[in-house]
Specification:
The chain is built from 1 helix and 8 strands, in the order αββββββββ. The protein is an alpha/beta fold.
């Protein structure tokens, strides 16, 4: 029985290691963010939005903010606001609350995540926070991404 020479085995092993590393990197990048609107409730200032945010990336995010478009009951833009979700550690879920001064909760029909002006973390590519974002809502107000 004849065995392949050592250089051929080395080249094959190196190709296998490179392919495995590329697949691992692709899998890490395949994660994403989940943003769920948990509650919309009146507050002393106006309307309080409660979100549950999860980071399924392999990397932690040191700063994340989203530009939200708030639509009224007629489907018209009521206002736009950038909400700072601060840090989101890898593999973790956090609850974030925001007060929207002067906003009547009864007038809010839906929210749209329009953009992510800040998406900062080691090895995180520009646009990563918006690509593949998963949204949901436990309230009567719809959240779209």
């Amino acid at each position: 029985m004849k065995f392949p020479s050592l250089p051929i085995v080395s080249v094959a092993l190196a190709a296998l290691v490179a392919a495995t590393a590329a697949k691992a990197q692709e899998t890490a990048a395949a994660g994403g963010l989940t943003i769920e609107l948990y509650e919309v409730a009146p507050s002393q200032k106006g309307c309080k939005l409660t979100f549950v945010a999860g980071n399924e990336f392999a990397q932690s995010l040191s700063k994340v903010s989203f530009e939200f478009v708030i639509f009224d009951q007629k489907g018209l833009v009521e206002r736009m606001a950038v909400l700072d979700f601060r840090d989101l550690p890898a593999g973790k879920t956090k609850v974030r609350q925001f007060d929207l001064p002067g906003t009547n909760c009864d007038a809010v029909k839906s929210l749209l995540i329009n953009d992510a002006p800040a998406c900062v973390g080691d090895g995180v590519q520009p646009g990563a926070c918006m690509s593949g974002i998963k949204t949901g809502s436990k309230s009567a107000v719809e959240l779209k991404g």
